[in-house]
Amino acid sequence: MLIAHVGPRVQVFAPAKVNLFLEIVNKQDDGFHNLISLMTQVTLWDILEFEMAPAGTLTLEVDNQGLPTGDSNLIIQAAKLLCKDLGQSPGARIRLTKRIPMEAGLGGGSSNAAAALVGLCALWGHSRSSLQLQNLGAQLGSDVSFFLAGPAALCTGRGEICEPRPAGKPLWLVMVQPDFGLSTKTIYESLGLAQSRQYHHAPTEFLNAWDSGDFPMLCSALFNRLEEPALCLRPEIGLWKERLLGLGAGAALMTGSGSVVLGLFPDGKMAYKAAGRLETGDPSGMVGNPGRVRSVRVVQTLS
Asked: Band of the pLDDT at 290, cuts 50, 70, 90?
């Protein structure tokens, strides 16, 4: 998470994340799922700007009309939680420039909440440790703590227990956003997971490849349990995976609860070439019709 002071304003770049390994451990009595996942931040950011406002005033402006700006927005929830933690009610005007797609499995809302905690601490002149901020983040959502612990971490529990896990080397990814989103709630409800089930896809091989930077081994060890229900709901995801593999990706995977599909490429040249062919609609090698694509991006993992 990058932070800058621009005159009286504080600017925070809130990154997207991808899951390169995600297994569901079991389902808790409260309906939440325990998981184990390797999450890493990537070079795609929302931008949040913060400036002082009269005490007790918290306002949010966004450049996306589809986003709420009131108490249902995680940014406002984070601001109010921080005020409660501080025992004060300072004010802030917050502006969000949205670049991370929604309903895509990229964690944009959680990243924004984490950025709000960091940015408002800087704006208001209060110091909080990374662990203190992670504890606050865990009250807002399962992935918020990760964005305060990254850029890469092995996440367990509901995703809020984060062990930093630096990458052996950065990865080149092509991110395909189909012309539809997927609801996290719907995907988890579609798992049909027995409460007593234990995860059977251990991350050992993946983590060894991640630590060493062994690209072929990493490609063979990618895994996302949430692909199963997502493919039942939207088979197009499987076709986008096939399309990326046909364009030279070493592996392809849906991230998080979808709908974005990732292709891992050994270098930037191959990644940009594949992205260019996707953007122009080049049909060569196409199996079936995966439908329209909303966006194609080339990103790298952060380290």
From this structure: confident
- To the query of whether residue 17 is one of the catalytic residues in this protein, the response is yes
**Listed residues 164, 194, 213: the one ending a domain:** 164
**Which pLDDT value is given to residue 30?**
77
Cβ atoms of 58 and 76 within 8 Å: the answer is yes
Alpha helices in the chain (DSSP H): 74-86, 108-124, 130-138, 144-147, 184-189, 204-212, 215-221, 227-233, 236-246, 268-279
Q: How many domains would you assign to the chain? A: 2
Angle at 171 between CA 48 and CA 264, to 5 degrees: 105
Q: Which of 17, 29, 179, 267 is catalytic?
A: 17
**The tokens of 140 are what?**
């807002």
Distances (CA, A) of 42 to 76, 111, 145, 167, 228: 24, 12, 16, 12, 24
Tell me: pLDDT of 150 over 50.
Answer: yes
Residues 123 and 200 in one domain: no
Asked whether 262 and 252 are in contact (CB, 8 A), the reply is yes
Burial class (CB in 10 A: 0-12, 13-18, 19+), 64: exposed
In whole angstroms, what is the distance from residue 293 CA to residue 179 CA? Answer: 5
Q: Which of 71, 80, 84, 143 is catalytic?
A: 143
